[in-house]
Structures are given as C-alpha cells and as structure tokens.
Write a structure and sequence with these properties.
The protein is α/β, with parallel strands linked by helices. It has two domains: 5-223, NAD(P)-binding Rossmann-like Domain (Rossmann fold); 237-455, 3-Layer(aba) Sandwich (Rossmann fold), CATH 3.40.50. 40% of the residues lie in helices and 12% in strands. It contains 16 helices and 13 strands. It has helices spanning 5-8, 14-26, 40-49, 61-68, 80-87, 123-134, 152-161, 202-213, 225-255, 260-267, 291-301, 307-334, 362-372, 406-410, 426-432, 442-445; strands spanning 30-34, 53-57, 91-94, 105-108, 141-144, 173-176, 195-198, 219-222, 343-347, 376-380, 414-417, 436-438, 453-455. Strand 4, helix 6 (123-134) and strand 5 (141-144) form a beta-alpha-beta unit. Helix 2 (14-26) runs parallel beside helix 8, helix 9 (225-255) packs parallel to helix 12 and helix 12 packs across helix 13 (362-372). The longest helix is centred in the middle third of the chain and has 31 residues, at 225-255. The radius of gyration is 24 Å and the shape is elongated. The N and C termini lie far apart (48 Å).
Amino acid sequence: MRPTVAETDNGPMDDVLAAQLQRLQNRDYVIGIIGLGYVGLPLALIAIGAGYRVIGFDIDESRVALLNEGNSGIKHISGRPISDAISAGRFVATSDLARLSEADAILIAVPTPLSKQREPDLRHVENSTRAVAGSLRKNQLIVLESTTWPGTTREVMLPILEEAGLKVGKDFFLAFSPEREDPGNTSYDTASIPKVVGADDTSSLKLASALYNELVAEVVPVSTAATAEAVKLTENIFRSVNIALVNELKVIFDRMDIDVWEVINAAKTKPFGFMPFYPGPGLGGHCIPIDPFYLAWKAREYEVTARFIELAGQINTAMPNYVVSRLAEALDQSASRGLNGSRILIVGLSYKKNIEDTRESPSLRLMELIEARGAIVDYHDPYAPTVPVTREHPGLAGRRSVELNVETLYSYDAVVISTDHDDIDWSLVAANSRLVIDTRNVCARFGVSGPNVVKA
C-alpha cells in the first residue's frame, strides 16, 4: 500500500517551507518550465502575468529562437505578452538545461505519447527528470504536469531525483498537477480552470498548492500524487467512453435512417441525467486518443482488464473507416464512378476546430484510407498549411493545403468535412461541391442543406 501524505509527513521542512512560501508571496521566486508548447507556454504566460520571472526550457532550438523573438508560434496565443516579458527581463527561453538550477520551481510539461504497441512512452518525462536531477539543489520544487499512469511521479521520477543523495520531504519538494488545457476554448483559459495538485508529503503539497494558488483561480489538493495522476486519466477516459458511445449510436441510427444529431439535440433538453457528447470522424489530439491507454496498461500490472477503455478505443479508432465507407456508398449513388479514381478534398486537417494542432488527427488517417482505395486526395485547412512530419503518417509529410474557392471545390468528386473551423465559408462549400460528406454536422448548424450533403 502506497503511503499517504499524512503517513509520510515528519515535518522536517517546516522552516524551509515557511521561507519558500514567503518568497512566493514576495514574487522573489523563479519558475522554470520544461516544454514550451500548448501546455507549457500558457503556463509560462500566467506565471509572468502573476509577477514571476520565468525561464522556459525546450530542446527544440528553432522554437527557443522563435520565442526569444517574441513569437509564440501558436496561432491562438499572442506574441505580445512574450515580447513585453522579454523586454522587462521576466522571460527567457533556452535549451541550456544547466540553467535549471536557477529555478526555484520546475514545472515539467512534456509529451507522453504511446509506442507502436500502445504502451506508455515516458522518454520525455524520464529525460527531463534526469536533466533536473543533474542540477537539483536543496529546496527546489519539482512538479510534473504531463498526463501519465498513476504512480509515475513516485515510481519513475522520485528514484531518479534521489540518485544524487537528496531526499524528498527533507531536501526538495515533489508534486503532480495535471494540465487541463483545451486549446481554442474561448470560455476557459489556463488561469480560470481549477488546478488539481497531489503530493506524497505534506510540505510538497503545501508548497505546490501555494504556487498554483498564485497562478490560477482555484486549487484542488488531493491526498497523493497518484490520485492526481488518476484524476486526469479519469477526465479523459470519461470523454473517450462517451464519445465512443455516440459514435456507435451514429452508426446504428444511420442504418435506421435516424439523424443522431437530431437525437442528441433533443435529448440534451432534459435538465438532468444527460450530458451531450457528439460524434465525429475519430479522435484526435494528444490526450483523448492516448491517455486512456495509460491506465489500461497500468491496470494489467494489477491483473485487471480495462474493458470499457479498450472497447471505447476500438470504436473511436474505427470511425475513419466508417467515414470512408459512407463516402464510397455516396459516390456509388451520386457519381459516374466509385471511390477508385475519384478526386477527394478533405476540409480540415487539425484534430479540432480553430486550432493548428494536427496531432493524432483523424484527417491524416482518412487521407491514407481514401488513397488506399485508389482515390486522389488533397486537403484544405487555413490553420495547417503543411502536413507536418509524423511517425504514424510519414508518407503525408510536406503536403500543402489547397485554396478553397468555387473552381477548386467543383474540381473534386467529393468533399469530406473532417474539421469544422468557424472561419470556413460552409455555404460556399455546400453550394459548389458535387458531394459533401459532413462528419461534424456543420452544414446543418450553419443552416446549409441540399441533396448533395450527406452526414457521416
């Protein structure tokens, strides 16, 4: 049985803790952030906004250079606060990990992908932890924000950090606080989303909670780091399972000639007992398609089968195949030829609307599946002008977005709407395409309809 906060607390750092808390309040405290992407950069900006000096660390030299020029490199994040912070001497980006010793708190926000065998790949977490351990000094606070399996902070990070002889709860502080970013969400930002914090000793929990209390509107402390790790997985598994449910309902209702979107819109009028989730062409992003498998993998250590998690993953992974089958059926019914030899345009490469993030995007899988059926595929996305290099889809790298106009649309046998960006003229798409396969119900939402629009 893992020790709880109360069981491990022996109060050796009370005086040190009091001093650190005072420095936090006085803003005499330097925050280091490893990983300056969709999670780390917003975190850096709210820390700067709260009055702290921030050192940002990233192994990508080009990204470091971009940030030091005052450019976020992320469309929905303005570069102005970065430029202002640099000018004020309160922010610098660097790839020099030796500078980790300058930070009083080090927040780690690095990717936690899956291997090809769908097993956790913690290389980035382990490498970051080793870098921290190489310059670890007394009284530093280390917090992992990357989503991972319950026990990672204690079982993976702690042994590395203690290799040099310093002890947690005596010489340094260690905690876990899962990121809850939702890029493109205009209703909630980093500062307004409550922050869960967990640690295995009271001093670490108090200091980490105090730090985040200075950065966000609300902190939710929990008893252990593993509990906090489980919280994030539970949030993402909840979404994965419910999205799988509506994806399955979509397939069933389609066979019954029932519009699943109409069903959901009517069902959500119930003021209790129902929460709407919406189907799509598959899951994308760095969280929902990946994180549930971290718990499924860890559960096997305890001889438990995560059946709901595995089944949800299978359903969501199969959705691009369903979309392709609907595309092929619609072409058979409306065109002079089937999918083989047709020209297909995918609208939307990003995994969700209004952002440029293409990680795990179902659009990439759709492109491969459609081409495997003998079609010619292009894409349009104002947020993603070029297909990035990916491990899973190397053959697509470098392809460029085509323009979206009347002539372009009419040159394709079918247009597949995969991502429903708000700034695309959907009336233009529907009115000038021979066939539209709408996986997001965006045409109906914008009041566009016609015999050429097929929901999928």
